[in-house]
Amino acid sequence: MSTGSMEQLYQQVILDHAKFPHGKGLGAAADLHLHTGESHQVNPTCGDEVTLQVDLDDTGVVRDVRWDGQGCSISQASVSVLHDLVVGNDLATVDQLGGTFRALMQTRGNGLDDEAEDALGDATAFTGVAKYPARIKCALLGWAALTDALIKTGARENS
């Protein structure tokens, strides 16, 4: 696939997630036995905001992510994609995904290897965002909220 058509595909993925966000809507955990953490993050540069709730079970598996927010399509789509990536995964996998996404944001738009991009799935659509330093914070906002919310569940140390 040519670079131009890949970029169009990536833009479409971001727009679809922004229009039809996955996991959007705050509320109580479905199960009282889950450990819930909540974090509100703001990107003052462009006014993006997200409040994210995460539910962990006793084995350290993310059972749900709920969120609400406002801002640019990049920030909102990124939280939607994050939701799809982390729900059902354990903390080690979530940490790995977060690290891989942060690495993608450091590539200046060059992308990662196939294995890393396969792991990221739709999150690979944010490759082009890495070309624009001012937009990287937009894409990382939800991940910052997730990291903070996981600390607040009590399941992880503040590092």
Can you characterise this structure?
35% of the residues are buried. The chain has helices at residues 3-19, 73-86, 91-104, 114-120, 133-152, and strands at 35-43, 48-56, 62-70. The N and C termini lie far apart (41 Å). It has one domain (3-152): Sufe protein. Chain: A, CATH 3.90.1010. It is an alpha+beta fold. The longest helix is centred in the C-terminal third of the chain and has 20 residues, at 133-152. The chain is built from five helices and three strands. Helix 1 (3-19) packs across helix 2 and helix 2 packs across helix 5. This is SUF system NifU family Fe-S cluster assembly protein.
User: Taking strands numbered 1, 2, ... along the chain, how are they ordered across the largest sheet?
Assistant: 1-2-3
CATH architecture term: Alpha-Beta Complex
Mean pLDDT over all positions:
93
Secondary-structure element order, N to C: HEEEHHHH
Overall tally of structural domains: 1
The helix-and-strand class reads alpha+beta
> Gap between N and C termini, in Å?
41 Å
Residues in helices, as a percent range: 40-55%
* Inertia-based shape: globular
InterPro entries: NIF_FeS_clus_asmbl_NifU_N
Pfam families: NifU_N
Protein name: SUF system NifU family Fe-S cluster assembly protein
GO biological process, one term: iron-sulfur cluster assembly
